[in-house]
Design goal:
Blueprint (H helix, E strand, L loop, with lengths): L1 H7 L1 H7 L11 H19 L6 H12 L5 H9 L8 H23 L6 E4 L10 E9 L7 E10 L2 E9 L2 E2 H33 L2
Antiparallel strand pairs: 1-2, 2-3, 3-4, 4-5
Length: 205
């Protein structure tokens, strides 16, 4: 499953890399469809060579981060341990988890290979606060499509992602298992140290 997440995480980037000015008022499925089309066009025009990694990283940091709720993602990944974490530790955890996802996105984005993404039309109630946007990644070469569901919540700043489910496996739940294991071995500070180490290794790739 780890390999699947590494390959598929790039598609999270496609989703929110380039966001229109009107995205704040846009229904979540329309937002996905529009941004997927724009981003794939850019990728095909510019390519994804390793030499462009700094540019890709900058795009992710400036365009994706405002549209993910990393605090909630970290809280969900921590589970019951979140209530035991001190304020400063929470800041460090959110920062390192965010960096981990950004580094992973950046590395994965260089491997784009003309996959096609289908977005399922969504009927969302006007007052709905949360929803799930379902997509399918058509890989070609006889491979089975990969379903990716985006769990989103409506905020004053527009719709934000707080979890992603790939082929039935939640990204947050996947990390929760790892986080719990690290905490059992070395406590919260040990988890933070582990994330720092992982982020440094990703930075050098």
């Amino acid at each position: 499953m780890k390999t699947l997440f590494q390959k598929i995480i790039v598609l999270l980037t496609y989703f929110l890399l380039i966001v229109p000015v009107s995205a704040k008022e846009m229904p979540p499925d329309q937002l996905v469809r529009n941004t997927v089309d724009e981003v794939i066009t850019i990728l095909k025009q510019d390519g994804t060579k390793k030499g462009q990694k700094d540019r890709i990283l900058d795009l992710i940091e400036t365009k994706i981060l405002p549209h993910f709720n990393f605090t909630r993602m970290t809280q969900l990944a921590m589970g019951k341990n979140w209530s035991k974490v001190e304020s400063q530790q929470r800041k460090e955890l959110v920062g390192e988890f965010q960096t981990l996802l950004v580094r992973t996105y950046s590395n994965a984005l260089t491997n784009y290979r003309d996959e096609v993404i289908e977005v399922t039309p969504l009927t969302t109630q006007p007052n709905a606060k949360t929803t799930t946007v379902k997509t399918r990644v058509i890989q070609g070469r006889g491979k089975e499509p990969v379903p990716i569901d985006y769990s989103m919540e409506k905020t004053d700043q527009g719709w934000k992602v707080f979890d992603v489910t790939v082929a039935g496996v939640s990204l947050v739940t996947n990390y929760r298992s790892t986080f719990n294991s690290e905490i059992k071995k070395a406590g919260v500070d040990g988890l933070i140290a582990s994330l720092v180490k992982k982020n440094k290794s990703l930075e050098g790739q």
